[in-house]
């Protein structure tokens, strides 16, 4: 091996090309004076420089160049393994020193840059190795302006992926103007996705007029709001929609084994709708389990069932055997079938041995009070006192004592008198079979006056079982003045005359007509069509009768 020695560091200024062709070992050490090579030199052996070497020209070596105290290259481009398919190692092996790429000046540092497909590894997965990527205000950009995936913690990694630190930050995921699909969490096996916040809350679609879907699509999983240790409070100034446009899906609130209170609606003025909408719905309120209680309350606006809706309201119907109670212990007005429209109100049942009981306090039971319309009952009885039923073979009780005496009232005004003749007949009632007529009264509430053709002073009437009959009332004047007829024995007909011994009534076993005949002594009653010759007149008949059972 050849050595070049000197007393100080050798400064080798080479202004020409030096080519090392390693054949044998050459060692160059420092010597007392600088050495200047002015010609072309080729070394056929390995050359070792023990001091600092500065070369101002290009150096080409076909062998390995090894340094032990560092190397500084400046002034031009440094290419390592350019166009050579060999490895470039920087700070490898057992080195523990820092490897620095880039300096304090503004620079562009490209790692793995170029047209060819490359796998670039940054950092180490060995033991407690740490890899830190930092940036200035320009930010840290991954795949910027590049339509390729960015994977963080993927593959078979089980390590924690953390985005954001302990300081106040804005962390934006999927932010930007373009349409994006952002997926958070995993649906694999028992994966858990947790969204946490501080006092600012978790905001989903905040100030954004777009739908928020939870458990949408074909999901069959449970959606839980709140936990067993505290309430879940949902506050919104807009519309909250659950299961909107979902086909045949169930929305459960407070279901399962929960024992907590479910409250819908708050302290403010609200409209709370259950089962509202155009589709056909079955709405169940309350539970039939064991001792469950369902209470419907209202304020002064009242509790309205099917208001302004022409549909039935059923209470305690179907196969129910429970008691239905309307009204409580306090003073109340309970109205059934009240209102202006015509109504059919049924109270009680006619099935088999059903019993309907109507009770009252000291105020009594009032039927049609202040109302001129009839009260109709097929059978009405007084429970006590009653006759004692006789006993014995062939004895059958047919009626224990029904109330069957009634009053029939009918008014005939001047407009009815249109007969083109002096006799005007009108059947004022047709009595049913088994009727007993007890008495008849006529009240001329307005005296009859002829306006034309007929003569006022000649007008009279009778009441009997047929036209011109006087079985109920003898002839009485209807033109002289207002008044009552039938309240004197002389005015009563032959079938009701007490003096004649009619036994308190005129029986009609087969029923029959009660006919009024009005007689005009001079001139016709009317034109035979619709016009009357009367200018005034009205008469009311009262028939007191009983119908045998």
Any key phrases for this structure?
Jelly Rolls; 549 residues; 4-stranded antiparallel beta sheet; mainly beta; 5-stranded antiparallel beta sheet
Explain this structure to me?
The chain has no helices and 16 strands. The protein is mainly beta and 549 residues long. The strands form 5 sheets. Strands 8, 10, 13, 14 and 16 form a 5-stranded antiparallel beta sheet that branches. A 4-stranded antiparallel beta sheet has the order 9-15-11-12, with no helix packed on it. Among the domains are: 1-72, no CATH class; 405-547, Jelly Rolls (Sandwich). 0% of the residues lie in helices and 18% in strands. It has strands spanning 12-14, 18-20, 25-28, 35-37, 41-43, 46-49, 59-61, 405-413, 423-431, 435-450, 459-464, 473-477, 483-485, 506-508, 512-520, 534-547.
List the helices and strands and how they pair.
Elements: E1 12-14, E2 18-20, E3 25-28, E4 35-37, E5 41-43, E6 46-49, E7 59-61, E8 405-413, E9 423-431, E10 435-450, E11 459-464, E12 473-477, E13 483-485, E14 506-508, E15 512-520, E16 534-547
Parallel strand pairs: 1-4, 2-5, 2-7, 3-6
Antiparallel strand pairs: 8-16, 9-15, 10-13, 10-14, 10-16, 11-12, 11-15
């Amino acid at each position: 091996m050849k050595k070049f020695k000197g007393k100080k560091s050798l400064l080798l200024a080479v202004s020409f090309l030096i080519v090392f062709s390693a054949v044998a070992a050459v060692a160059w050490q420092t010597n007392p004076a600088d050495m200047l090579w002015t010609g072309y030199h080729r070394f056929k052996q390995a050359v070792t420089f023990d001091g600092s070497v500065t070369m101002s020209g290009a150096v080409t070596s076909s062998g390995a160049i090894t340094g032990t105290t560092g190397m500084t290259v400046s002034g031009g481009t440094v290419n390592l393994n350019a166009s050579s398919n060999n490895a470039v190692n920087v700070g490898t092996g057992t080195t523990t020193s820092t490897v620095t790429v880039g300096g304090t000046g503004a620079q562009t540092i490209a790692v793995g840059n170029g047209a060819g497909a490359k796998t670039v590894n940054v950092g180490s997965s060995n033991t407690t190795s740490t890899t830190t990527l930092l940036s200035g205000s320009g930010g840290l950009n991954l795949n910027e302006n590049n339509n390729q995936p960015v994977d963080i913690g993927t593959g078979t990694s089980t390590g924690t992926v953390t985005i954001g630190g302990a300081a106040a930050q804005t962390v934006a995921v999927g932010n930007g103007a373009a349409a994006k699909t952002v997926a958070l969490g995993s649906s694999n096996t028992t994966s858990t996705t947790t969204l946490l916040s501080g006092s600012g809350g978790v905001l989903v679609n905040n100030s954004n007029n777009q739908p928020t879907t939870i458990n949408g699509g074909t999901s069959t999983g449970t959606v839980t709001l709140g936990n067993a240790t505290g309430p879940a409070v949902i506050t919104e100034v807009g519309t909250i929609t659950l299961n909107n446009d979902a086909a045949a899906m169930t929305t459960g609130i407070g279901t399962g084994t929960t024992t907590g209170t479910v409250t819908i609606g708050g302290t403010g003025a609200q409209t709370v709708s259950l089962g509202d909408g155009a589709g056909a719905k079955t709405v169940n309120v309350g539970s039939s389990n064991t001792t469950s209680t369902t209470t419907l309350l209202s304020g002064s606006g009242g509790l309205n069932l099917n208001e302004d809706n022409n549909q039935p309201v059923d209470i305690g119907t179907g196969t129910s055997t429970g008691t239905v109670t309307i009204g409580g212990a306090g003073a109340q007005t309970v109205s059934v079938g009240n209102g202006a429209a015509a109504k059919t109100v049924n109270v009680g049942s006619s099935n088999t041995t059903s019993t309907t009981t109507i009770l009252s306090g000291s105020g009594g039971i009032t039927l049609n009070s202040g109302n001129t319309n009839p009260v109709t009952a097929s059978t009405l009885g007084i429970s006590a006192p009653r006759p004692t039923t006789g006993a014995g073979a062939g004895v059958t009780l047919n009626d224990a004592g029904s109330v069957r005496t009634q009053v029939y009232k009918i008014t005939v005004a001047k407009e009815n008198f249109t007969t083109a003749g002096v006799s005007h007949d009108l059947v004022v009632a047709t009595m049913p079979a088994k009727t007993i007529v007890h008495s008849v009264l006529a009240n001329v509430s307005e005296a009859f006056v002829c306006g034309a053709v007929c003569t006022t002073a000649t007008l009279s009437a009778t009441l009997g079982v047929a036209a011109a009959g006087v079985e109920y009332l003898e002839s009485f004047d209807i033109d002289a003045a207002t008044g009552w007829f039938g309240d004197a024995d002389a005015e009563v007909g032959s079938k009701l005359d007490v003096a004649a011994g009619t036994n308190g009534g005129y029986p009609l076993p087969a029923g029959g007509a009660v006919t009024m005949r009005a007689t005009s002594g001079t001139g016709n009653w009317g034109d035979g069509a619709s016009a009357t010759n009367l200018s005034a007149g009205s008469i009311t008949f009262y028939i007191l009768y009983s119908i045998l059972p």
